Amino acid sequence: MLAIIQHYIHNPDDIPDIAPASAEYLNVRLNASYLIATGMVDELRRGGMSEQYIAGFLEGCNAATEIIELMQESQRQQQEE
Length: 81
Fold this sequence. Notes:
The chain is 75% helix and 0% strand.
């Protein structure tokens, strides 16, 4: 197993900072509305991906935005201390 994966398994509270502009950009690019509006979801359909696959992809994008929010919240808490 990669050392970095082991690190976060053993240190789940060791959350790195994320730049506000990076967080905003990633939250937009991973947003389902953005992916639909830009044609990404239609592109997946044209590529033969099943609706289940597309739903899983969108759930993964949502999970990534939740991690970004976790990183931002951790950063806010550290600044308050």
